[in-house]
Sequence to fold (119 residues):
Amino acid sequence: MRHVVKKQDGGGNKPLSEPVLYILMSLAEMPRHGYALIKDIEAVSGGRVRLSTGTLFGAIRRLLENGWIQHFQQEDTARDKQAYRLTAAGRKQLQLELDRLKQLTRTVHARLRTRKTET
Fold:
């Protein structure tokens, strides 16, 4: 059986992968470079999510191509680190994913309540 996700908008609102969700969430707070993203994601997930550099930079490449993040020049870094920041389009995608997850959570809670009353 094939899994199909109905698009909610014209932008192809399919579920975000966990690494992409965490990257967008981290950049929603502030611009960060790659290593800072890895450390922030590990911290915010309680150590559950540890992105490899390959996973991180593969996702960053796709996010840049989608226009969801952009390069950001940090003036205060001693070394030449490439930082990234969330764009308006990226913030919109993050909000769409949050809305999707809220709806999913409501549905699961409703199903659990229904099942509880049947037993």
The longest strand covers residues 69-72. The chain has a mean pLDDT of 88.
